Task: inverse folding
C-alpha cells in the first residue's frame, strides 16, 4: 500500500504554497470559499445504483418492505460472516441497539453504566433511555478509550454494565475491561460504530465483549441510509434482541417483554448490502486519504494527525491542534467552515460537561482532548486536490497568522 | 399472479376456491416503479441520504397542509414517536390507555418511565370513551392516550374536555387514521398531539415511519430536538434525545404514497363495500362498518364472529382460511393487559375488561390493499361462506 500511495503523490502537480493571496480572500472575511460545494466529515459512500435498484425490484415484486424481510436476513448473514460471530441482529439504528442491549444485559434494572466521557454525544441519552445513569470515566491520552484505572476507581455496587467505545484511531483494551467486568459480575458491551474490524478472525472486542454495536448510518463506513447492528456469540441474547426489536413479540404472537419498534426496513437493508459489496474499495480510499492528509500537511507547524491503529478503516480524519498552532481549535474550525470545509470539533463538549451546568466531575484527559481535535472533511467527496487545498490553506493561515488575528479581533467585536 | 384454482382440500372436501399465493392483511401499497426510481435517483444525485434532508422537509410541509395543522415532526416510526412525545410533554405518573390495541401503543409509555393504566373500550366503537376513562383518573394520572381504532374515534371532544378539566394531557395514537375525520373534521389537530404511522401495512407506506402532528409550537420544537443528536436551535437542558430521524429514503416513500392517497383510499373503499355486500346476511359474521358517517381511508376490513350463531370459533375460522392461503389475522389478541410485562399487576385482571376480552376473542381482519383485487374479495367471501355454511 505504501508504494501505491507514493505513486499517487508523484502524479500530483507541484503544490502551490498559497491559494489565498490576501487576508480578505479568506471566506471568513468575505472572500470566495475554497470549495464551491460543501465538504463534509462523513463517509457518504454512494453505492452502485444499478445494483440497488435491482434489489429494490425484488422488494417491489415481493411487496416485502419491512418486518424481517429477505434483505435484512441477507445483510445479517453477510455481517455475521464479516465479523466472525455467531449472530448478527440488524436494527433501525445503533441507538436502538445500545438501548436494547443495556436493557437485555445489565445486571440490574437501575443503577449506573460506566462509559467514556470523551465520546459520542448521544451515549448518555441512550443510557438514560435504558433506565440508567451515566458513570463517566476518563480516557487514555493516546488511544482515547476508557482509562482502566479510572474505571476501577469509579465502578461501584450500583454499576450495572460497562459500555466501552472503540475509536477510529484505537480499540479499547477489551481483555482488561472484560476482566474488570467479570470481577464485578457485570456485562461488557462495546460501541464499535467507528471501528469495524477487518480480519476474518474475531476482533479483540468481539472475543471479550458480550456484544458489539455498529452503525449503518450514511456518514459511516457502510451506508444504509440509517441503520445499525449488533454482533454477539450469545444466541439467547440474539433471540432476545430479535424479539425486542419487534415489540417483544415471540413466535406465536405472545408479548414477552417491553420491546420497541427497532426494525430495519428492506430499503435500508438493500442499500447497506450494496454498500457492503464495496467495503474494500471504501477502506482503500479512506487509507489513501489519510496518507495524503499526512503527506500534504507534513510541513504545517503545530498540527498533526492522530495515530491510527493499523487495522483502522480511517473513516474519520482527526487533526490535533497544538499550542504551537497560532489559532485555537475552534477558531480554526470557524475559518474552515467559512470555506465550506465543514470541519467539526471532535467529541466536544465532553460528555460530563453539559452546556449550562458546572461539571461535578473533573476528567483531565478528556477535558484536554476535547479542546484539541478537529474532525476534518473526509469520505467520498474528498479528493486529493481538496486535501492539497486544505494543506495550502493551513500554511496560509500559519504564515499570516498575525494579520489574521488582528482582523479576527475586529470581526469579533 | 394469483390464480383461481379449483381443487379439493382436506378442510373442504368438495371443490372449492383456493389461492396460489398467500393473501396478506396490510395495505402494502407500492408506488409506481418509474416514480420510485426517479425519486431515488434524486437522492443519489444530491447525496443527501438522511439528517433532515429536503424530502423530509417537503414531507412535513405537505402533511401540515393536508391535515391543517401547524407542525408535523417526522420520525423513524410511530412507536418511537409516541415515546418521544410522552417524554417531551413532561408527564409524570400514569397514562390511561386501552388494552384493546397493538403493543406498540402501550410500550412507549413504559419506555417514557410512566405506568400504563388500562381501560376497557366501547363495544360499538372499540375505542375509549370519556365515560370509561373518567373513573380511572386519579391524582397520579398524567395523560390519556387514546387510539383511533380502524381510523374511527369516538368521543374526542368529550375526551378533550375531560383532559382539560383534570389538567392532564391527551395524546392520540392515530396509526390507523390518516385521512379520517371525526364529526367532519380531519384527524390530526386534536388533543396535545396525534401520531400517524407510515408502516408498510398502513395506507401511507414509508416502509417504516411515523409523524407527530400538533398545533403546540413548544412541543414541536422539543420534538425536533428530541429526535436527533444534531445541533438544534432550542433544546431543553435535561431532554432525553434519541436517533429517531426518518431517512430520505423513508421520506421519499411517504411522499410517493401521499401523492397516491386519494386513489388508495378510493380503491380501499371499493374493496370495503364489496366485502360488506358479499358478506351481508352471512350468519354469525358481523361486518364492522367503522366508516359510516365519516371520511375514512378504509384500510381495514374487520369482521366479528359470533361462534354461537356461525357454529365456528374465530380461531378455527382463521385456521381454515389460512389453509386456503387467505392469511386473515386476529386483532388484537391477546390484549395488551395480558402481555407478560403487564399481566402481573392485579388491577389489570380480565374482569375489568369484558368488552376488550370479547373483541379479542371474536374480531379478525381480512386482506385488503393494493395486492387484493375485487375478484379476490369476491373469492375470499365465497370461501368464507363455504366454511361457515358447510
Result:
Amino acid at each position: 500500500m505504501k508504494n501505491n500511495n507514493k505513486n499517487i503523490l508523484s502524479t500530483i502537480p507541484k503544490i502551490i504554497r498559497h491559494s489565498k493571496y490576501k487576508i480578505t480572500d479568506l471566506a471568513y472575511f468575505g472572500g470566495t470559499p475554497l470549495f464551491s460545494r460543501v465538504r463534509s466529515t462523513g463517509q457518504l459512500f454512494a453505492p452502485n445504483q444499478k445494483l440497488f435498484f435491482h434489489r429494490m425490484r425484488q422488494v417491489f415484486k415481493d411487496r416485502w418492505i419491512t418486518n424481517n424481510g429477505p434483505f435484512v436476513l441477507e445483510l445479517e448473514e453477510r455481517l455475521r460472516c464479516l465479523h466472525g460471530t455467531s449472530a448478527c441482529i440488524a436494527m433501525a439504528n445503533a441507538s436502538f441497539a445500545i438501548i436494547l442491549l443495556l436493557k437485555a444485559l445489565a445486571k440490574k434494572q437501575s443503577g449506573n453504566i460506566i462509559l467514556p466521557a470523551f465520546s459520542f454525544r448521544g451515549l448518555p441519552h441512550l443510557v438514560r433511555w435504558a433506565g440508567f445513569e451515566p458513570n463517566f470515566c476518563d480516557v487514555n491520552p493516546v488511544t482515547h478509550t476508557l482509562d482502566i484505572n479510572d474505571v476501577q476507581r469509579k465502578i461501584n455496587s450500583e454499576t450495572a454494565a460497562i459500555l466501552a467505545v472503540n475509536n477510529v484511531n484505537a480499540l479499547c483494551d477489551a481483555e482488561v475491561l472484560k476482566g474488570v467486568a467479570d470481577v464485578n459480575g457485570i456485562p461488557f458491551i462495546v460501541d464499535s460504530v467507528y471501528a469495524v474490524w477487518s480480519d476474518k478472525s474475531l476482533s479483540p472486542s468481539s472475543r471479550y465483549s458480550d456484544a458489539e454495536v455498529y452503525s449503518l448510518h450514511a456518514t459511516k463506513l457502510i451506508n444504509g441510509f440509517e441503520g445499525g447492528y449488533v454482533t454477539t456469540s450469545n444466541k439467547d441474547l440474539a433471540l432476545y434482541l430479535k424479539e425486542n426489536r419487534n415489540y417483544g413479540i415471540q413466535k406465536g404472537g405472545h408479548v414477552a417483554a417491553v420491546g420497541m419498534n427497532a426494525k430495519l426496513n428492506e430499503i435500508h437493508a438493500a442499500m447497506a448490502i450494496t454498500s457492503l459489496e464495496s467495503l474494500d474499495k471504501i477502506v482503500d480510499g479512506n487509507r489513501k486519504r489519510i496518507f495524503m492528509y499526512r503527506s500534504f500537511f507534513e510541513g504545517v507547524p503545530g498540527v498533526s494527525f492522530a495515530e491510527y491503529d493499523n487495522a483502522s478503516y480511517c473513516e474519520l480524519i482527526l487533526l490535533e491542534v497544538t499550542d504551537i498552532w497560532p489559532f485555537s481549535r475552534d477558531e480554526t474550525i470557524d475559518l474552515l467552515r467559512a470555506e465550506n470545509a465543514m470541519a467539526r470539533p471532535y467529541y466536544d463538549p465532553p460528555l460530563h460537561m453539559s452546556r449550562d451546568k458546572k461539571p461535578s466531575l473533573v476528567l483531565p484527559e478528556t477535558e484536554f482532548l476535547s479542546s484539541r481535535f478537529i474532525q476534518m472533511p473526509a469520505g467520498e467527496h474528498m479528493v486529493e486536490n481538496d486535501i492539497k487545498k486544505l494543506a495550502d490553506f493551513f500554511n496560509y493561515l500559519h504564515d499570516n497568522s498575525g494579520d489574521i488575528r488582528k482582523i479576527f479581533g475586529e470581526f469579533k467585536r | 399472479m394469483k390464480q383461481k384454482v379449483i381443487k379439493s382440500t382436506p378442510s373442504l372436501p368438495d371443490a372449492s376456491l383456493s389461492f396460489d399465493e398467500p393473501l396478506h392483511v396490510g395495505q402494502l401499497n407500492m408506488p409506481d416503479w418509474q416514480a420510485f426510481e426517479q425519486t431515488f435517483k434524486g437522492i443519489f444525485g444530491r447525496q443527501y441520504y438522511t439528517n433532515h434532508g429536503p424530502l423530509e422537509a417537503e414531507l412535513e410541509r405537505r402533511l401540515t397542509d393536508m391535515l391543517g395543522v401547524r407542525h408535523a415532526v417526522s420520525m423513524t416510526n410511530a412507536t418511537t414517536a409516541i415515546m418521544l412525545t410522552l417524554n417531551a410533554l413532561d408527564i409524570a405518573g400514569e397514562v390511561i390507555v386501552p388494552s384493546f390495541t397493538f403493543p406498540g401503543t402501550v410500550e412507549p409509555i413504559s419506555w417514557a418511565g410512566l405506568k400504563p393504566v388500562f381501560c376497557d373500550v366501547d363495544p360499538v366503537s372499540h375505542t375509549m370513551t370519556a365515560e370509561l376513562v373518567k373513573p380511572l383518573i386519579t391524582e397520579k394520572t398524567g395523560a390519556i392516550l387514546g387510539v383511533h381504532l380502524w381510523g374511527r374515534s369516538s368521543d374526542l371532544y368529550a375526551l378533550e374536555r375531560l383532559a382539560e378539566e383534570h389538567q392532564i394531557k391527551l395524546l392520540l395514537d392515530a396509526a390507523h387514521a390518516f385521512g379520517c375525520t371525526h364529526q367532519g373534521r380531519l384527524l390530526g389537530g386534536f388533543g396535545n398531539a396525534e401520531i400517524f404511522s407510515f408502516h408498510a401495512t398502513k395506507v401511507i407506506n414509508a416502509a417504516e415511519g411515523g409523524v407527530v402532528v400538533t398545533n403546540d409550537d413548544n412541543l414541536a420544537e422539543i420534538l425536533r430536538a428530541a429526535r436527533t443528536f444534531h445541533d438544534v436551535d432550542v433544546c431543553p437542558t435535561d431532554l432525553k434525545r434519541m436517533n429517531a430521524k426518518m431517512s430520505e429514503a423513508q421520506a421519499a416513500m411517504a411522499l410517493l404514497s401521499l401523492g397516491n392517497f386519494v386513489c388508495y383510499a378510493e380503491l380501499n373503499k371499493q374493496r370495503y363495500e364489496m366485502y360488506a355486500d358479499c358478506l351481508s346476511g352471512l350468519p354469525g359474521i358481523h361486518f364492522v362498518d367503522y366508516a359510516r358517517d365519516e371520511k375514512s381511508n378504509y384500510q381495514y376490513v374487520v369482521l366479528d364472529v359470533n361462534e354461537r350463531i356461525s357454529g365456528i370459533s374465530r380461531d378455527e375460522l382463521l385456521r381454515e382460511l389460512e389453509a386456503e392461503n387467505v392469511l386473515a389475522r386476529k386483532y388484537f389478541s391477546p390484549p395488551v393487559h395480558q402481555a407478560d410485562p403487564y399481566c402481573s399487576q392485579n388491577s389489570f385482571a380480565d374482569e375489568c375488561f369484558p368488552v376488550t376480552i370479547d373483541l379479542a376473542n371474536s374480531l379478525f381482519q381480512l386482506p385488503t390493499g393494493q395486492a387484493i383485487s375485487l375478484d379476490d374479495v369476491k373469492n375470499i367471501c365465497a370461501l368464507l361462506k363455504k366454511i361457515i355454511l358447510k
Observations:
- Chain B touches chain A through 51 residues (CB under 8 Å).
- The mean pLDDT of chain B is 93.
- The radius of gyration of chain B is 22 Å.
- The longest helix of chain B spans residues 261-279.
